[in-house]
């Protein structure tokens, strides 16, 4: 796997190069996120840089195939892998169009459901011991995957927040695959996410020079849904819960609150709990990000014990830990 690590190091610098290039292009072509009454920024910032994730992924895929052809590495792929690649391509392109032209939420939702429905064949359901009919379980898992995509998208409202979450998510996935299956595509893909999000964070940390937009958050959300369902398929629900607990709990609580107030769940009111210190109490973005990094470090230790020592019950600690952080974000001082 030495060759693969070399390629991923190349990917890191390639991502930095392309983001720098995109930054210049977006400024020239006015692909800008403009300040509005409801969002979290007071200056114009280039957006849509997440399309770079797809471009770099395709380059990585070509390089990996070259290494495989020359028998320098050996990788096992999930079932119907071409569906995964096509799904990332279509979702990223549609989302980038949305970054520029603002698609109606119903159109976005339609394509997400369509693509995720086709992607369900990527998951090995033979390993899942459901006590409910298969078709019903497919509907539930499709709903979960689409919901996870949108939870991830909703997290992209604070400088560096989604990139930081994605780094810790992919790091913990890497720990698992390194320990148990370092020849699988999942292993390389978790490293890929770790590399591109680390490179992007350089530009997106407070105060952000560029935003990934929906093209990046949907790309990451689809990937997170895919990897989290893998853990469900091998009956590691504890790992899945610990990995997704923050976006799932924060977004669910916020959506419930919106609906109680008569609002649409997808309305961009920027009222998620992690945004409240900035929006309500005038804290800087770096304040929230600092505590979120501390939270993720603690979560990584917890996940390490779950993965390496099989302490499955510790997912309960992850849930409690997440609720404590949300309460902390809601405090006035």
What does this structure look like?
The radius of gyration is 19 Å and the shape is globular. The longest helix has 28 residues, at about 1-30. α3 runs antiparallel to α8 and α6 (about 160-180) runs parallel beside α8. It has helices at about 1-30, 50-70, 80-100, 105-120, 135-155, 160-180, 185-205, 215-235, 235-260, 275-280, 285-310, 315-330; strands spanning about 30-35, 45. Strands 1-2 form a two-stranded antiparallel ribbon. It has one domain. The chain is mostly helical and about 325 residues long.
Features:
mainly alpha; 1% strand; two-stranded antiparallel ribbon; 12 helices; 333 residues
Count of domain modules = 1
Q: Strand count, sense and closure of the main sheet?
A: 2 strands, antiparallel
Order of helices and strands: HEEHHHHHHHHHHH
Which residues sit in consecutive blocks of at least 5 with pLDDT less than 50? none
Can you count the helices?
Answer: 12
- If strands are numbered along the chain, what order do they take across the biggest sheet? 1-2
The end-to-end span amounts to 49 Å
Average of the residue pLDDT scores: 91
Sum up the overall morphology in one term: globular
Helix content: 55-70%
Q: What class do helices, strands and sheet pairing give?
A: mainly alpha
How many strand elements?
2
The value of Rg in angstroms is 19 Å
The proportion of residues in beta strands is: under 5%
């Amino acid at each position: 796997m030495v060759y693969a690590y070399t390629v991923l190091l190349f990917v890191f610098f390639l991502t930095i190069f392309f983001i720098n290039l995109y930054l210049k292009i977006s400024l020239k072509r006015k692909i800008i996120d403009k300040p509005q009454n409801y969002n979290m920024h007071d200056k114009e910032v280039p957006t849509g840089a997440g399309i770079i994730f797809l471009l770099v992924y395709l380059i990585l895929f070509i390089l990996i195939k070259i290494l495989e052809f020359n028998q320098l590495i050996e990788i096992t792929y999930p079932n119907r892998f071409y569906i995964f690649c096509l799904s990332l391509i279509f979702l990223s392109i549609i989302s980038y169009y949305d970054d520029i032209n603002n698609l109606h939420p119903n159109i976005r939702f339609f394509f997400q459901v369509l693509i995720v429905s086709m992607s369900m064949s990527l998951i090995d359901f033979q390993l899942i011991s459901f006590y409910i009919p298969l078709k019903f379980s497919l509907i539930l898992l499709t709903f979960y995957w689409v919901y996870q995509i949108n939870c991830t998208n909703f997290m992209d409202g604070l400088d560096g927040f989604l990139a930081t979450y994605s780094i810790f998510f992919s790091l913990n996935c890497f720990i698992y695959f390194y320990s148990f299956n370092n020849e699988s595509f999942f292993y390389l893909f978790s490293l890929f996410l770790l590399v591109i999000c680390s490179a992007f964070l350089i530009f997106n940390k407070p105060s952000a020079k560029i935003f990934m937009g929906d093209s990046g958050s949907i790309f990451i959300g689809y990937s997170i849904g895919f990897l989290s369902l893998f853990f469900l398929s091998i009956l590691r629900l504890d790992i899945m819960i610990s990995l997704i607990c923050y976006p799932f709990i924060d977004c669910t609580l916020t959506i419930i609150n919106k609906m109680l107030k008569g609002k649409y769940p997808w309305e961009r009111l920027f009222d998620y709990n992690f945004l409240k210190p900035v929006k309500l109490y005038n804290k800087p973005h770096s304040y929230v990000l600092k505590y979120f990094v501390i939270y993720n470090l603690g979560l990584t230790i917890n996940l390490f014990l779950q993965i390496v020592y099989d302490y499955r019950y510790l997912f309960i600690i992850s849930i409690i830990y997440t609720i404590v952080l949300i309460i902390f974000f809601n405090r006035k001082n």
